[in-house]
Amino acid sequence: MTAVKIAPSILSADFARLGDEVRAVDAAGADYIHIDVMDGHFVPNITIGPAVVKALRPHTAKPFDVHLMISPVDPYIAGFAEAGADIITVHPEAGPHLHRTLQLIKSFGKKAGVSLNPATPVEAIQHVLEEVDLILVMTVNPGFGGQSFIASQLPKIRELRRRIDALGRPVDLEVDGGINVDTARLAIEAGADVLVAGTATFTGGPEKYATNIRALR
Ligand code: DX5
Ligand code: ZN
Asked: CB-based burial of residue 188 (10 Å sphere; 0-12 exposed, 13-18 middle, 19+ buried)?
């Protein structure tokens, strides 16, 4: 098995110094830069839009893993693609035609991801397994950093690992929410190969980022 990838969520970074923060986690060994986009409607928080993604793009060559928690989502795919996203992940509840949304993402030459809320079953995405490059399992209710890991999602991660392995092509299995050194181990044992980590990465200031990322890995 390949080494687990770490995707720091910049939701926990210092927003006044976001370019520096992205450079710092890049230097500290981040594999992806996880960007949480929230609209105050699909989730109860408002974060960042395509203008910020575009402004951050020159600060790193690492893939931008853009997690869209917005509804409707289709009208904004082009904006995030053109701003420099590499992976664009959507929730099945964010529009009426998930398959069409994934095709739209791929039409821009981007990797397409799909995310499952804690209450959303694997069956909600069974019909698009052939289309996706990444599956993101939420282990918190989306909206905020710093929440506690919901362990009831571990069987879902195990089930998705089985289904991905049966596909016979590479699909990232990413876990998002409440990841720390203890829950990282549980997620990896269940079959995850990409860990989103906001609080666990950005705790202690820039001089700690490399240590924090190493500990998770
Ligand atoms: C939650 C976001 C997560 C969050 C993770 O809605 O999708 O990416 O920022 O934060 P931590 O790692 O602090 O739980
Ligand atoms: Zn996220």
From this structure: middle
Residue 67 CB less than 6 A away from ligand 1: yes
The parent domain of residue 194 ranges over: 5-216
86 is catalytic: no
Q: What is the CATH number of the domain that holds 135?
A: 3.20.20.70
Residue among 89, 150, 176 whose CB has most ligand 1 atoms within 8 A, to mutate? 176
Query: Per the residue annotation, which of 36, 65, 133, 193 is the catalytic one?
Result: 36
CA 19 to chain centre: 19
Give the model's pLDDT for residue 1.
46
pTM summary value: 0.98
Name the residue with tokens 């993101």.
Answer: 136
Tens digit of pLDDT for each residue in 121-165? 999 999 999 999 999 999 999 999 999 999 999 999 999 999 999
Centroid of ligand 1 to alpha carbon of 46 (angstroms): 13
